[in-house]
Amino acid sequence: MRLNRSTHRSSTVNLVPMMDVLMTVLTFFVILSMSLSAPQIADIQLPRNVPGKADPSEKITPLMLGLDAQGQIIQGNQVMESAELVKLVQTYFQKQSNGKVLLVADRTLSYGKVTQVLQGLRRLGATEVSLAVQPE
């Protein structure tokens, strides 16, 4: 009596489609992380970084204001007038009495204009103003 032996093919897993999917997912996350790396305010060129120390224990969300090359004050992507800026800063400090302002000023802007804005912010109650710089 002869048994009918069937030939068994070993099953294989094709890895190429799985690798394609993984590369697509990896590419997606790389692009996503690059777009979320730093908040942007319009088209402003920051000055270079000078090493310093920051206090990591503070968790205050700063009010981000931008100063473009023409000296216009920007909040988000919107140019602000002086009256709007006064209202914005006063509202911010009413909500956060120990708040901070982050000033993102274009490096081509004159020092005098930055000083004028800093003095105006001080008059509105901003005692702590940080200037953003571009890391080297």
TrEMBL record:
On whether Phosphoprotein is a keyword of this UniProt record, the answer is: no
Q: Does the record bear Transmembrane in its keywords?
A: yes
Per its UniProt record, what InterPro entries does this chain match?
ExbD
Listed Pfam families: ExbD
- Keywords linked to the UniProt accession: Cell membrane, Membrane, Plasmid, Protein transport, Transmembrane, Transmembrane helix, Transport
Where is the secretion signal located? none
- CC terms in the record's Gene Ontology section: plasma membrane
**What is the protein name given in its UniProt record?**
Biopolymer transporter ExbD
This protein's species is Lyngbya confervoides BDU141951
